[in-house]
Amino acid sequence: MRDKILTLGVLCLVLGYGVGYVMGGRAGDDASSHDGHSSHGTHMKHALFNVAAADAPSVSISVTEDAKSGWNVQLATDRFEFTPESVNSENVVGEGHAHLYVDGKKVARLYGSTFHYPENFDGTREFRVTLNANDHGEYAVDGQVVEASLDITHDHEADDSAHSENSR
Q1: Is 129 exposed, middle or buried (CB count within 10 Å of its CB: 0-12, 13-18, 19+)?
Q2: 81-101 residue pLDDT tens
Q3: Going along 17-90, which residue ranges are E strands?
Q4: Distance CA 149, CA 137 (A)
Q5: Cα–Cα distances in Å, from 70 out to 94, 103, 142, 151?
Q6: Secondary structure class of 16 (helix, strand, coil)
Q7: Distance from C-alpha of 40 to C-alpha of 168, rounded to nearest angstrom
Q8: What is the pTM of this model?
């Protein structure tokens, strides 16, 4: 009887460890490829850093085809300073960095106003940027994320791109 209890205990430990390892690995995968809670399609979002409308930064985005390859992303901000030296520290209103998403997938953390997106494509892609505080929380006013998005449609054969911007 004692051997059966010992065997059952060991079996439970092995199974518990295995299930915990698998579940923990999945959570780790989610955390590394996304940034928190479900939102906007496939991208995950951070907690909000709500600020008063009068203090809120703003952002707009432009995307132009690079003469050699890929696309050049340019951000214009107001009441916002990029502070890479302060990432992961206490929030200061008007400081932080940006996150760039393409078709809902986070592709970069931006510490400045320019970024080269190296992929060429045909069809339409959505480029979206959020302004983020030092703790990575998304700047928001009354729960609305401070962001800008731009749909880029490109056809290499026609070599004519269409752009439409949507910013908050």
Answers
A1: buried
A2: 999 999 999 999 999 999 999
A3: 37-38, 44-45, 48-50, 58-65, 71-78, 81-82
A4: 18
A5: 30, 16, 36, 15
A6: helix
A7: 15
A8: 0.69
